[in-house]
Design a protein that fits this description.
By secondary structure, the protein is an alpha/beta fold. It has a single domain, classed as Rossmann fold, CATH 3.40.50.880. It contains five helices and eleven strands, in the order βαββαβαββββαβββα. Strands 2-1-3-4-11-10-9-6-7 form a nine-stranded mixed β-sheet, sandwiched between helices. α1 packs across α5. The longest helix is centred in the last third of the chain and has 14 residues. The protein starts with a strand and ends with a helix. It comes from Streptomyces flavofungini. Its EC number is 6.3.5.3, 3.5.1.2. Part of the FGAM synthase complex composed of 1 PurL, 1 PurQ and 2 PurS subunits.
Length: 227
């Protein structure tokens, strides 16, 4: 039996179908999860996909954090279940405090959509094991509230503990402090990033590359190896 990876849909989620496809391309079973349902349907991992949940009212991810499904996601993440937050999903993870810091409006105050070069800073997480530390990848980026911020103490802690997962290369597209594009929790099971790996899993669409597929093959191997 293959791994079952849940993909949550909130009102305003845009990339749930793309994420489900990426899961299937990697060889796992994609399980749709509805935001009002606490039941995680016995999935092995969860992805919070991109979009504009609840229209980003109040601030991005602030309302989704209180959706019934998140009660179960928070509980299971703290127990070790792998969770990936992509773009809006990363924003939700910071709102739940599963990941430290916060996401603010891009420093140039404009929506940005481009292929973005990243450096993999660690492959010691459930979602990055199929990459090499230091590897450079290119995946799509699309956001307006993508500026990662935290106080200096938190930033120093992330750096010292090897918890910066990805860093922007060539240009910082949104003013994120220390060029941070994604981070992980201390256990390595929860990862959040602003760029969209689900849009770079097949050569005919997205960037024309498959640089994002490693997220989904990493978690599949992690889950199969744990059984």
């Amino acid at each position: 039996m293959t791994a079952r990876i849940g993909v949550v849909t909130f009102p305003g989620t845009l990339d749930d179908r793309d994420t489900q496809r990426a899961v299937r391309v990697a060889g796992a079973e994609a399980v749709p999860l509805w935001h009002r349902d606490k039941d995680l349907k016995q999935v092995d991992a969860v992805v919070l996909p991109g979009g504009f949940s609840y229209g980003d009212y109040l601030r991005a991810g602030a309302i989704s954090r209180f959706s019934p499904v998140m009660e179960s996601v928070i509980e299971q993440a703290k127990a070790g279940m792998p969770v990936l937050g992509i773009c809006n999903g990363f924003q939700v993870l910071t709102e739940t405090h599963l990941l430290p810091g916060a996401m603010l409006r891009n420093n140039h105050l404009h929506f940005i959509c481009r292929d973005q070069k990243l450096r993999v800073e660690t492959n010691s997480t459930a979602w990055t094991a199929d990459y090499e530390t230091g590897q450079e990848i290119s995946i799509p980026l699309k956001n307006i509230d993508g500026r990662y911020v935290a106080d200096e103490r938190t930033l120093d802690m992330l750096e010292a503990e090897g918890r910066v997962a990805f860093r922007y290369l060539d240009m910082n597209p949104n003013g994120s402090l220390r060029d941070i594009a994604g981070i992980t929790n201390a256990a390595g099971n929860v990862v959040g990033l602003m760029p969209h790996p689900e849009h770079a899993v097949e050569p005919l669409v997205g960037t024309g590359r498959t640089d994002g597929l490693g997220f989904f093959t990493s978690i599949l191997k992690n889950l199969v190896g744990a059984r």
